[in-house]
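@channel sequence for tomorrow's demo:
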Amino acid sequence: MTKKIKLIILFFGYLGIFGLVNFAFAQDFGVSAVNNGLAGSLAVGDPREIVGRIIQILLSFLGAIAIVIIMYAGFIWMTSNGDEEKITQAKGILKNAVIGLIIILSSWAITTFILTRLAGAIDGTGTIDIPGGQSGNLVTSGAGAIGACSVESVYPTDGQTDLPRNTSIMITFKEALKLDSICVNAAGDACTCDSTSCNKINPLSIRLYKTELGDACTGSSCSNPNSNVTEVMVAVSGDKTLVLMPASLLGESSNNIGYSLKLTNRVKKAGGDSMFKGCSADYLEWGFTVSTRLDLNPPVVVPGAIFPRPDNIKDIFQQISPAQPARGLISVKDCLQIYSPAKLKSISPSGPEVVLSYHGATTQFIISIPAGSPNKAQLFDGHNRQTLLGAVDFNSNNEAVFENYLIFKTTDHPEGSSWTIAIEPEILADTLTVNSSIYTFAASSENNNIQVPAACDLNLQAANIAAKLSGQSDIMVDRSGSNVNLEAKTAGQVGNGLPLNTTDPLALLIKPLAGGSDRQVLNESRDEQDRPMNSVVQVNFNEPINPLTISGTASEVADYISIVNADPATVTALAGTICSSNSQCRSYKCENSVCVGDYLGGKFVVANGYKTVEFVSDVECGVNGCGETIYCLPANSHLAVEMVAANLKPCASDNDCLALNPFTACRPAVGLAYRTCQNPENKNYPSASPSGLDGVVDAAINSLDGNRSLFSDGPIDFFNENNQAGDNQDNKDKYKWSFYVNDQIMLTPPQISSVSPAQGQSNLSLADPIEIVFNTLMMNSSLRSGSQAIKNGTSTFTHKLVNLRSSTPSALGYWILSDNLDIAPLDGEPDLTKAKIFHTPFSESVTYSSQVGSGVKDIYQNCYKPSIGPGCSVSAAQPSCCFGNATAVLGADGNCQ
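structure tokens (generated this afternoon):
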């Protein structure tokens, strides 16, 4: 081989090597994979990014060294002038350098593979097997918006299988929607959603598609033809819940089909920002599987799953003694001290400057310049010359800086000189501690300060204390002269022993809260137990319910669900009827001798995966242990809940029923003024008309089956749950039951009986839900993610709900479902609630923490405070339970530290 050919080969070899090295340098060794997998949610200081960048730098440095060595070998070879020894040396160097470069590139490949797989595990784009047959690519990082960010709940849930082809899709957000970001009209123009001319999804905002085909739309356009499902009607319940109803059946009659639903960043909050701004990804995406079947089973109220239970006879109730709240007193006896820093009184001889930073009690210091060291200063305790507090050199500004004492400055400091410094020590401010809050007396009332009047005024000081304590969530405050009277907001023994103390007991005379006692009653139940006034009315269905007709204020849904006076004499006592008492009105509201309204005021809320509807009255009657308002049903009342089934989809001829096998005959419906599609047994096709819902329907738009006959008969008559079984089976298909309410308020807070997995448990399934069992029935609408703000007096408090967090910034989606359980002795009536936190798959070797906050409430609206749980005995002084230990200290974000 000639020297010229060797040079050409070597030249192109260099180019190839430089190309490889440039390729290696262009990689981030898995950092991009991790970052992209987490949708860019990593901060610069994320540990995984730091590790990735360290690997990148090291491999890049080693690659550069390998190139230099190769170049050096080439230089030796080209300058050898035929010297065989130099050529052999160059070959050896080149061989070793190439081997080293191969090792470096292999390291890069292995590192990239590992970090990419790690990213797939973290962000959920990998494949994982889940118990119950749910497996495959179930989630993306977009599912992290559920629970952890802006989305409250969805139906179907992520990874759900065996869905009927005629299902609707429901999404509930935590914030109000900008409706013109959701809907378009027939011409495709954006518009504010309504039920008539603007009821189609915006295909750029909401993308429903078969998972195997992928999304046919980009950020700004959709392909034509478009394989996405775009003919979807959209309706809005309130301003936070979307109900999507495909115009045609999903899936196929012979194969299960996987679907994905993506809500893009074009979905906006009412204020205009993306609904997913700040989430792990700027979109919501999840998947589910549609089966080959149709849902032709109408929804029913689960037997025994209503609260209060049906009750036919009012109890005999006698209160021996009512509950008494604990009371305490703060009496202002003298002026309170505010903070005063240490002050310089004198320095002798005069001349030097002194700046104090001292916080102790000494009143005199001595500065001395030692013999032979004119640039050094010594600090002594002025009361004990033998106590040396420090020795420092003068700096370039002629300052002797004694940390935590003072700065001594003079240009004249000859050896042997000394100075005596007299000071007034600092005076600490007085404080007042109430429960876990510490208030400091100061010249202003900012933050947790209590203002001290410029001139000592005991009455004004008491008024300032009362004003500041009025924001406390646990106590009520009343002032009389220089006395501040305190009363626990929750009556009973729970208020006794509330921490109350001060650093100046001579100025503030403290009488701790005491004297709280629980009520004593004599109660004889004659059928079911009459329920307290602060009860929440709860109905549980066997499947998800469409919220459009069953969620909202009482006035918004009165045609479909309502709570009314159950006394037969009030059936005609409608709005405008003359009355003398509330009990004479169907609405239990008599004002100016006239009945107001035809039903109780309040609000209906759908929760628990759209399977539960709850009603809370709008009549205020107290506060719970968190300072939140409690609302009450009428005292000593007899109430009925009435739900209306929707009218069924009508037909004009058999041709309208051809596709509805076996409901292929169009016949007059019994009890209805129209014809419906019926099967050979004259049973109606269960579907209501989606364009004009006028009653309770499920997610497949099947009308309510009030009498549980397994078929929909329409809104003919009320099935009454209070009647004996079989007495009113022919009454169909509306549903009602009645119960009695006493004049008591239940104020006992709920407790957690058990949790699974237990604190610190390891080697868990990546898919199993977290289970939380309470000791009582819970208000399911409070078992949701996030937090809620409660205003109490002039202050606003944030109360956490149910949350699940990862020790890494991974995209974890989660949602909460619950079951009411009947425990021994079994009587057919649920006794307590088990909540389950379902989630997208966990990552291996990652720590997770679950949280139940004080915003969670029981069926009587009592908040979860104190946070009593298994193995954790809390108190008024330490009301929180963090990782099995009682504490009064939480982080700035309100979470356990």
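heads up for whoever presents: Confidence is low (pLDDT under 50) at residues 1-46, 119-140.
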